[in-house]
Write a structure and sequence with these properties.
heterodimer, A: about 525 residues, alpha/beta, 5-stranded mixed β-sheet, 3-stranded antiparallel β-sheet, 10 strands, about 65% helix, B: about 250 residues, 4-stranded antiparallel β-sheet
Chain lengths: ~525, ~250
């Protein structure tokens, strides 16, 4: 029977589920290196990874796995082993303590607190700070004779600022800074990381917040104004290491400390520039950095800016194996979420049909889930389920419920009432009525619900990358972090194509499983409705 | 004849059924002898359909007893009961996703008869349809009259010896209706089929019923043969009903 086959499909789908979850569990001997989604973090993580590999460790890379909360939650739960973090971020964003200005005091504080509270270890800092930097165009600095923030405060009424939303909101961002220096900008516009620099360069804004190691500072010839009152806390970069790694592979921890104190601001800025401006592959930048530090063998390749950037097609072709595996993972996420959605939502819809009074309230409350913005729902999942595949699957599953429950309920409810009543009257049991009459008659409606749910899931799954679940969202998230349109498109285009393919494929299935007479009946109804309107 | 089950007698005693304020059945008693056709006539809301649905337990009465050959239907297995009583609704109630032969073979299939398909084809023959032409059609490819014939065939294919018909010809045009009435009359006359026919059309009841039960407001006003009814209407309502039917004829 059709339904027996369906059960078979579900069972088959749980095999890749087990596979995905097995991938999640990092087995001993394998070091999981992750990063936050921005260029410098990518480079540092890749350097960690290559360093470990050169010392004989096996490494799994999870670049750009998520912002601070996500990455740290993953580290705490030993889902990842190491990622680059900043001491100031640890102090303010994780420990929620007030800022301090002495770098070694901050490092001391975070190392002792992290190790006692979370069992997580800060390795000695890498050697550079990446703190907030307030930057202006060189011409602005000359016009107003600006060198530091105190001087900026004197002319700030004439200037408009373009700042990241994050910076505008944080106590240790604009509000505190404005208090400390008496800054009062003519206008403050929230701008995304990706557009801030070009907005400044084009004169749309006069002041931006950046990071002291941004490669773009050099690229656009900007002037960073000195924080003369030491308002910004020190943000020293360091490797943050999981409890698991310290216990199981202490050798890897020792290897990572080889990088401590080896990178200064100038060299980090240069590396960032190679990535953000030159568009060089992270892997190559990290290798040459390690080579020039003498940490791994070989001769450091010269900085070679790829001014002639590859075309999108070429780029996608070159990264085809990564894209294919992202696509496969995306398909798995959608498949598992929708199939488990079917397993729950179809019986729920059938059950609700028996309890019409409960039906509308229940379906509506499931509908409310649909109104939660995807990224918010994914974020809610993190405290409950951590990061990675599971929270993403649960979120995608929740999204798939509504269309399927709704369509099952109304499909079964509206299934030819005369046929249903005759079937009962002639002695079908309610199970037989359901199996032989209501389900087949409702099948087209249920399938169209499944189709809607699948297309929604393909789209929503791109956001799953923000909580570390991978998939086609990964190049999108990374591309957004690097302001690399090509990379964004390399994830977005296949995702869009996948949505179209899924929609068309399920459309064909829907048509094929709809018995000819039902197609006829649907056409009749449509014709009647048209005639009615005229 | 196709039906091979034992003849069935249906006895209703003191049936009462209320839907909130509405008393659909208010102490109805009626006996239908084996092989008899009783037509139940009344306006919509008179309780006639509720009465019919009490017999195959689509409705359970608040009080009173339905007995089949002397056995209370509540003591019978409900699906077994329904499978032994043929049922024909007004609109045919055919499964739109099944071809005609599967529709007709429904009850034989449910009861696990090995010759379900042969029975279906034979039943089509008894209602005047050519199985060779009709068996593999979809319900939507049939005319209204053919659909009702198929519904009657389906009610007979399991060998049922009792038919419950709920306005079976109500939705047909006049000519088709009279053709089907003829077919049904022939079928009934040649067999020992017990039939309970619900209709709002007194003339149809006169033509098909061995006896007629007139219902109003959940009560039976009169049970009589067509001739008795015509000559001795028991209540003003029955007389009014007769007057209307005669006027329509003229």
């Amino acid at each position: 029977m059709k339904y027996a086959r369906l059960i078979g499909v579900v069972a088959a789908a749980s095999i890749p589920l087990a596979f995905v979850s097995a991938q999640q569990v990092s087995h001993t001997g394998n070091v999981v290196v992750a990063s936050k989604p921005f260029g410098e973090s990518f480079i540092l993580a890749e350097m960690f990874a290559q360093l470990l590999e050169s010392r004989g460790f096996t490494v799994t890379r999870r670049p750009g796995m998520g912002a601070t909360e996500v990455a740290f939650a993953a580290l705490r739960s030993n889902a990842i082993d190491v990622y680059p973090e900043y001491t100031g971020t640890g102090l303010l964003a994780i420990l929620h303590e007030p800022p301090q200005s002495d770098p070694s005091a901050v490092f001391g504080r975070v190392s002792s607190e992290f190790s006692s509270r979370y069992g997580v270890r800060w390795l000695p800092p890498l050697g550079f700070e990446n703190t907030y930097a307030i930057a202006v165009r060189r011409q602005t600095a000359i016009d107003y004779n600006l060198h530091d923030l105190t001087e900026l405060a004197g002319v700030s009424q004439k200037l408009s600022a373009g700042l990241t939303a994050d910076f505008i909101g944080r106590k240790d961002g604009l509000p505190g800074l404005a208090d400390a220096y008496g800054l009062k900008f003519k206008q403050v516009r929230p701008l995304a990381q990706a557009v801030k620099y070009s907005a400044l360069a084009s004169g749309a804004v006069d002041v931006i917040d950046g990071y002291s190691t941004d490669g773009l500072i050099a690229r656009y010839d900007l002037v960073v104004l000195r924080d003369d009152k030491r308002f910004f806390p020190p943000y020293e970069a360091a490797a943050l290491v999981s409890k698991r790694l310290q216990r199981k592979i202490p050798g890897a921890v020792a290897a990572l400390t080889e990088l401590s104190g080896r990178l200064d601001v100038a060299s980090m800025r240069k590396l960032n520039q190679r990535l953000e401006v030159g568009g060089e592959p992270v892997e190559r930048i990290a290798r040459s950095a390690l080579q020039s530090l003498g940490i791994v063998g070989g001769v450091a390749s010269e900085t070679r800016e790829d001014t002639t950037r590859q075309s999108l097609g070429r780029y996608m072709w070159d990264s085809r194996s990564a894209l294919a595996s992202a696509l496969w993972r995306h398909v798995l996420l959608v498949l598992i979420a929708v199939l488990t959605g079917i397993v729950v939502a179809v019986p729920l819809g059938l059950w609700l049909e028996q309890w019409p009074r409960a039906a509308e309230p229940v379906i509506r409350s499931i509908g409310v889930l649909q109104t939660i913005p995807s990224i918010a729902l994914l974020a809610f999942m993190v405290p409950l389920l951590g990061v990675g595949v599971w929270p993403a699957l649960v979120a995608l599953w929740l999204y798939s419920l509504y269309p399927i429950v709704r369509s099952t309920y109304s499909g079964v409810r509206d299934a030819d009432p005369q046929a249903v009543s005759a079937a009962r009257a002639l002695g079908m049991t309610s199970g037989q009525v359901l199996r032989y009459v209501r389900m087949p008659l409702a099948a087209p409606a249920i399938l169209s619900g499944v189709r809607t749910a699948s297309v929604i899931a393909v789209g929503t799954a791109t956001l799953a990358a923000f909580i570390g679940a991978g998939g086609l969202g990964e190049p999108i998230a990374t591309g957004l972090a690097l302001a690399d349109t090509r990379m964004i498109l390399s994830g977005a285009l296949p995702a869009a194509a996948l949505a179209l393919v899924v929609d068309a494929f399920l459309g064909v299935i829907e048509n094929a499983t709809t018995p000819a007479p039902l197609r006829h009946a649907a056409m009749e109804r449509a014709r009647e409705a048209r005639a009615h309107r005229q | 004849m196709i039906h091979d089950q034992q003849p069935i007698e249906v006895a209703l005693t003191g049936l009462t059924k209320a839907y909130g304020e509405l008393r659909a059945l208010d102490g109805v008693s009626l006996t239908v002898a084996a092989g008899e056709c009783v037509a139940i006539v009344g306006e919509s809301g008179s309780g006639k359909t509720t009465l019919l649905r009490c017999i195959n337990r689509l409705v359970d009465p608040d009080a009173g007893i339905v007995a089949i050959n002397g056995r209370d239907v509540r003591d019978l297995d409900v699906t077994g009961l329904r499978r032994s009583l043929g049922y024909v609704p007004q609109d045919g109630g055919l499964m739109p996703h099944w071809r005609v032969d599967r529709n007709v073979g429904l009850v034989p299939w449910l009861t696990g008869m090995s010759d379900a398909n042969a029975r279906a084809l034979a039943a089509l023959g008894t209602v005047g349809l050519d199985p060779a032409i009709i068996a593999s059609r979809w319900p939507h490819e049939l005319s209204g009259g053919q659909r009702q014939r198929v519904a009657i065939a389906r009610a007979l294919a399991g060998g049922q010896s009792c038919l419950l018909l709920d306005e079976p010809f109500g939705a047909l045009d006049a000519i088709t209706r009279s053709e089907l009435q003829g077919t049904f009359k022939g079928l009934h006359d040649e067999s020992s089929l017990t039939a309970i026919l619900v209709t709002h059309d007194l003339r149809e009841a006169m033509y098909l019923g061995d006896r007629i039960a007139v219902m109003q407001h959940g009560r039976i006003e009169q049970v009589a043969t067509p001739a008795e009814l015509r000559h001795a209407p028991a209540t003003p309502y029955v007389r009014k009903l007769l007057d209307h039917a005669t006027r329509e004829l003229q």
